[in-house]
Amino acid sequence: TLASGNDPFACFGGDGSSSSSDDEDARTNNNMEKADRLRDKSNFEQPSAVTDLLHKHESSFEMFDATLASGKGLRAVVAYKQGDEIMRETAIMRIPNSQPAASREAAEQLHKNAIQRAYNSLHHESQKSVMALASCNEDGTDVARTPQGVYDTNSFRLENDPKGGLFLTIARINHSCRPNVTHFWSPRLQQKLIFAVRDIDIGEELLTIYGPGQCMATKSRREYLNERFSFECNCEMCREGNANGGDERMLKIQALQEDIALQSSSGLVSTTDAEGQLASVKKCLALMKEQGLGGGAFTKTIFHHGYDICLAAGDYDGARSYLNSELTAVMDSEGVHSSKAIEIEEALKNFHDTE
After folding, report:
1. CA 273 to chain CA mean position, Å
2. Inter-CA distances, 130 with 124, 138, 149, 153, 183, Å
3. Quick one: which H or E segment has residue 20?
4. How far apart are CA 196 and CA 295, in angstroms?
5. What is the pLDDT of residues 150-209, one digit of tens each?
6. 234-255, pLDDT tens digit by residue?
7. Which whole-number Å values give the CA distances from 293 to 14, 67, 174, 319, in the listed order?
8. CB 124 within 8 A of CB 218
């Protein structure tokens, strides 16, 4: 039940905090069939947040005892399709990411004080819900656990927002190196949204990724997670290791992503160069799909690189095709009315208007 202090999709072709800076609000509920199951998880309005939010009759997911190692988790009580919005939640605590101070020790004390003040202002039922979360750098007993330990373990940095946030329900989502959900922070809504990365069956646990920020082999991923969150990852991907070539694929994906990003950013692409660079894009996407990482949260940045390469080479049909693919990936991981989706739709419209 640990949540990353950094946005989870910093790897797999993107920085996880989408390039969009906005999200549309209530129109989603009126225009989309899936809106029947959207829930406003505002902890400010419900003091006994976790109990109320996860009541089976009011939600499409429930909390359960996952494993001895991971503790509580969330699982689906309805089936989700790739791109479905599963939940949206308001942070119960918002703390500045940095504190101006004359020394590191002084900054750390200010950080601790800010967390304690925010915690003290909560309803006592919400305080109980906060303290029921894990604290990876403290003893596992309730006596040793502190608000700072819980916040530092479970909070998220939120794109360009100067404050991070602790989300009681989202913090219950456990880790997998091959996750089935992704996070998206909406500045307009001031909420974190959770989308299905792939189809999810009834009874399946909801799993996100805590890191690392690169595609690594199993040993390196486990070392990162153990150092950062104090657990040995035993997810599906880690259990597979390199039995089916998984570790080799992850390293190839990382190398391809670095090459593609460098080529795309140069802006100097000839027709001949574009063929080789687009071959790398297609290879990367194929490897990601084979590794079980083909959802929009992983691929949207790769599609955008394909668009940039085609555009620089004057291949407008190819650019349009990659932009359409990016739009689908963005809608699946940020919502159909996210500002990034709207921006891409405008770019596609301009393509049609100039034909």
Report:
1. 33
2. 10, 15, 11, 11, 20
3. none
4. 9
5. 999 999 999 889 999 999 999 999 999 999 999 999 998 999 999 999 999 999 999 999
6. 999 999 999 999 999 999 999 9
7. 13, 24, 17, 23
8. no
